[in-house]
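Quick one:
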Amino acid sequence: MDLRREELADYAAILAVHRQAFEREGEALLVDRLARDQVDRMSLVAAIDSSIVGHVLFSEAQLIFDSQSISVGALGPIGVLHTHRRRGVAAALIRHGLGLCWQRGWPAVIVLGDPAYYGRFGFKRADAWAIRCELDVPPEAFMIAFAGEPIHGPAIARYHRAFASV
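Output:
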């Protein structure tokens, strides 16, 4: 399996991965909107025999404190073709992507998802550090991983406005 940054020629395959993985348009539209809005992002693909079988997007988000804000990464969406699930594709994309996020200088990455799944990558409930999500999501589903020392709130995590429509 080849893990690499997205290339322009991959774009249609990336959207197709999300459409098939989620069986709806929402995640593909989110990927497209973040690209069109030129959001600072890192887009990675997993390819097998030159075919795109998985994709993950890390985009810039903000942690808003009383007097400042800091840029962090936001993991998602992540999609894998049905025929390649349970083969470690998503895990490889997440691990590789987190390493690149830390190299990029993002001090943390946030995610909305299943705590049992994302916990194995170092994500923990963000409310343990007094960080909450501005989106209406259950607190156990909003998690954060840190590159180094934890960041303590109170703070509100703000995703790009396109996330509100998924």
